[in-house]
Amino acid sequence: MSQEGYDKLVAELHQLEHIELPQVREAIAEARDKGDLSENFEYHAAKREQARLLSRIRFKQRVLDFARVIDKSRLGGDSVGLLSRVEMTNLNANRRMAYTIVSPHEADLRSGKISIKSPIAQALLGKKAGDVVEVSVPAGVQKLRIESIQL
Question: Which of 16, 71, 123, 149 lies in disulfide reach of 135, CB 3.0 to 4.6 Å?
């Protein structure tokens, strides 16, 4: 995982634990003060929200427990690997695109970050600039030529 992704996950966990969870607990307390809990919609909704938040908190804690931050300076830049920024040309559509290959927890297609487990990243791993790879994607088989690799 990149340092940026790790820091973002820590910030998200802090937000959940110290801001959102206390708000939900306060909502539960307010709903409990309104009386009969068996027919109190606000109480049940707040309890469901608390369960959802606690589940997300546990998930993020487990991800952080097993996360390893990768030092970019120790990575080789001659072939495609984790944290590589790859510029390539789709030879079928004659269109250029660039993606950074990241851990599954950091993937965000809008930001140009694809998971190392995605079909495109799997096909690119270990390849060098100038190589042409064929990738089987839901839209069919695409031919991609690697233009450059950066860290």
Answer: 123
What's the mean pLDDT in 131-135? 91
Residue 104, phi then psi, degrees to nearest 5: -60, -30
Read off the pTM.
0.70
Q: Please, are residues 20 and 28 in contact by the beta-carbon 8 Å criterion? A: no
Residues sharing a CB contact under 8 Å with residue 44, sequence separation 6 or more, in sequence order:
none
DSSP state of 111: G
Q: What is the DSSP code (8-state) at residue 40?
A: -
| pLDDT at 40 (0 to 100) | 75
Longest pairwise C-alpha distance within the chain: 70
Residue range 7-24: mean pLDDT, rounded: 93
Residue 70 neighbours by CB under 8 Å, 6+ apart = 1, 2, 82, 83
Q: What residue has token string 């390849």? A: 127
Q: How far apart are CA 106 and CA 27, in angstroms?
A: 32
Amino acid at 42: E
Between the CA of residue 39 and those of 23, 32, 42, 43, what are the distances in Å?
A: 22, 11, 9, 9
| One-letter amino acid for residue 133 of the chain | V
